[in-house]
Amino acid sequence: MASSAAILLDTHVWLWAALGDMTHFRRKTIETIDEAAQEDRLYLAAISLWEVAMLESKGRIRLTLPCADWLKQAVRGTGVTVAPLDIDIAAASCTLTGFHGDPADRLIVATAVHRNATLLTEDKNILDSAKKNGFRATRLK
């Protein structure tokens, strides 16, 4: 990953970072994320906020604050810039070839492509699709 490239965190990656669960990350990955945050090139797709809120509402995760407050604190604490969903991203999310139907994943990938960012993920479907669709995605380890 080029040191000046934009980085977009997949939802689960951002959630791990926000919760301080760094067991999933190599030291070099942590350094790369920290550097990107300091240089304002670390992004989170807006749909990831919704995904975390849904996980909390379904009881799959527990947050230490009311959801909206937790999300605001987590965005500030991780140094991400929330990349808004716009017309181009919405349209591009529907053009991914051979990509599974999860709309949130499609929007995350389209956001990474739109931002010309490398997507950090552990999602095998996304990693496999990166090769087919020509976008940059990389694992944490």
Plain-language structure description:
By secondary structure, the protein is α/β, with parallel strands linked by helices. The protein has one domain: 5'-nuclease (Rossmann fold). Helices cover 52% and strands 12% of the residues. Helix 1 (11-19) crosses helix 4 (67-78). The chain is globular, with a radius of gyration of 14 Å. It starts with 5 loop residues before the first strand and ends with a strand.
- The low-confidence runs, each spanning 5 or more residues with pLDDT under 50, are none
Count of helix runs: 7
SSE string, helices as H and strands as E: EHHEHHEHHEHE
Structural class: alpha/beta
Question: Considering the protein shown, what is the CATH homologous superfamily?
Answer: 5'-nuclease
Largest sheet: 5 strands, parallel
Structure keywords:
single chain; 141 residues; alpha/beta; Rossmann fold; five-stranded parallel sheet; 7 helices; 52% helix; globular
Describe the secondary-structure layout.
Blueprint: E1 6-9, H1 11-19, H2 27-38, E2 42-45, H3 46-57, H4 67-78, E3 81-83, H5 87-92, H6 103-114, E4 117-120, H7 124-133, E5 137-138
Parallel strand pairs: 1-2, 1-4, 2-3, 4-5
Helix pairs in contact: 1-4
Condensed summary:
This protein has 141 residues and is α/β, with parallel strands linked by helices.
